[in-house]
Amino acid sequence: MKKNKTANVMASIYMLVFVALFLVLAGRFMYIQATGEVSGVALDEWAENQRTTSYKMNAERGQIMDKNGMVLAYDRPAYRMYAILDEGYSENSPEALHVSDTEETAEELASILDEDESEIKGILDEAVEAERFQVEFGQLGRQLSQQEKEAIEEAEIPGIYFDEEPMRYYPNGMFASHIIGFAREVEEETEDGIEHSITGVTGMENVMNEVLGGKDGFISYQRDRFNSKLLDPDEIIQEPEDGDQVYLTIDQKIQTLLEDLMTQVDEQYNPVKMNAIIMDPKTGEIMAMSTRPSFNPNSPENVENWYNDPISSPFEPGSTFKIFTWAAAIEEGVYNGEDTFESGTYQPNERIEEIRDHNQGEGWGTISYDEGFMRSSNVAASKLLWEDIGADEFYEYIQAFGFEETTGIDLPDESVGRIQYNWPSEKLRTAFGQGTTVTPIQQMRAASAIANDGQMVKPYVVDKIVDSTTNNVLEETEAEYTGQPISPETAEEMKELLASVVNDEDGTGAPYKLDDYVVGGKTGTAQMPDPEGGGYLTGKENHVFSFLGMAPMDDPQLMVYVSIQQPELEDTESGSAPLAFIFNNVVENSLHYLDVEPEEDESNKIQEVEFPEVAEQSAESVQSELEEQGVQPILIGEGETIVASNVEAGERILPNEKVLLLTDEPTMPDITGWSLREVMSFADLLNLQTERFGNGYVTSQGIEVGKPIQEGDYLGFELEVPSGESSDENDDDNAGEEETEEGNNNDEAGNEETEEE
Questions:
Q1: Where are the transmembrane segments (predicted)?
Q2: Using one digit for the tens of pLDDT, what is the confidence trace for 203-218?
Q3: Can you give the residue range of the structural domain that contains 16?
């Protein structure tokens, strides 16, 4: 009886527990049925989400075009490969729709893609072991070309499928790559899995990323467990909005020409760096810009230099900065180009180390300031600043030309140079471009004032933004003036000075002269600071050689800056050789391409002189007539009648060219300083027997000055290369200066700059 009682109690307890559980579960079911929620989650929404899949529809990234509509960057289709591994995917199918043999699949894919078979098999086997429905192949299955996709499809490999994905492509390869930049695909993990999109990394791709990127769309539909769309999928489609098109001011033809020329120079001279800018000085449009080292944006691996050096890397400009020293002097009304000074050295006071001209302080004797500009005299620049303009006034011109601020060009990472302008020696050195640093684009903006009647223009590279759907212009850049540091009259006078640098025989820019157009410009060859020992590096090649020029000079349509750092030069070559190869070719061809009328005929009338008949003419009258035409006649002897000349009647010669006039009483002239060509022309005129010793310019002669000479005489002479110059082309070494102030020891001795003659 006791056992039965205990059993009844336990049965009652179990029954109560069972009833309680039943009521709880029933109540829960009734609650769920009534509310349709579990833990705050609506079951109908949860079921809807489980049945619904959603895919992002990538907007097509906008194209980058050149000024004329040539495509520089665009999206082209690529494919991402994946494999389905679940056997259920092949259910009710007469053929396999999934990967059934990982080894065979890996073998076939490896042969088509030229990849490691074991790597592919490893990816498949690992996914099979993890019982995954599908698997991607990482980088080796990404950005496959149309040809690769078709080859795999033709092989009919079960279980291999593709998703289309965009890939940014640059059809011109290493073309304005620091301007265009590049974009790359990025992965983002979302609730729906990994999403892929393209985003700009550098250059225009980065700056204009929002404009180019557009707005992605999406598609959603209901599916079964095998990801197949249901018969009534409740499909929703939100179309993507493609990115807008960005038109650059770059001209593909001019840029391509520039790139080809720089590649040739890069291969021949193996420089550390090169930069070039081609700009329309009337508008500020950058028509071409390139730098070396460069990179191919289609495969931007192992890039040596990410910086767009023309806008991001300030350096000591050298004598191109003299443009702004002379412009300041003219604008201040203190400049008279015919005034003379003693070249060679200059020392304002005993506390400042003397300034030396680039030929080791030898100078050219007493010369005019116009000639000082042509010869790129440091002494002339320093005297103008110290004695005429005034140091404080010149600093105001530095600011007016914008050298203490960025240009505002629409490219990323623009830098501004540093004006070293505290101590007297720093101020004097700034006058000829040493110590102070600027960027090439700063110099281009400042020099645009000379080409544009005194007004500076803001440089820019984005021409316009166009809606990719309607082709409507959304934004368009217009020329913007950023100041007027000089007057139109000063600009005109500076044009004449710049033209003389290239076209006068004493100018340092002779290598940049063109046949069809009058070029003006200024050379610069700045020494490089020694990062280890202080001061500056020594040696012929340890310079940044540069040239800033424009053409045609009556109405400049192009302004070009080129520079090259530490090229490997031959013994007979100067730094102007690689620069002139780039400048001359790109300017001549670009002006013809732009249909700028050649100036050849007008140039001849202005610059060339038709040599008259001089035989049996009065020596005095011939000399006077030629001098009026700008020719430099040299009378051989003291006779009253000209009997011969080294130039034939009717021959066209340049102003300032030396002409030898043989009189009827010939005597030996002073040929010291003459070039070998000039001496041989003189010897041919009198049929002299000659013997030379050395190379360069005449330092001594075997026949005394003033001694009578006649046909057949023997003339021996010695030649020497001036210090710091090669036998064929003269490298001007701007010797620097050092200063000691109270409380300051500035021993940047040996500062030097080299000009190309």
A1: 12-31
A2: 999 999 999 988 877 6
A3: 2-52
